[in-house]
Amino acid sequence: MSRSLHVRLDDSSAAALDVVRAEGLSDSQAVRTALREAAARRRSRPALREEVRRLAEDAADREEMRLIREQMAELAPSAED
Question: How far apart are CA 33 and CA 75, in angstroms?
């Protein structure tokens, strides 16, 4: 069952709709696309937070990153170059 939705757009929302419509979409297609993309981003945030937490707790990964930073610093040109 499809659902009809009526909205009043402020200036920034109208500009955002124009960006999405630039792909050749109708207003309805653009709104559906934007809603799906926004929902996907919101669903992915908890997974991203979990990955960040897991990596932050990984002592071996932190040590490897520290070593890489040191190696990169050694390769970087000096301030006198």
Answer: 45
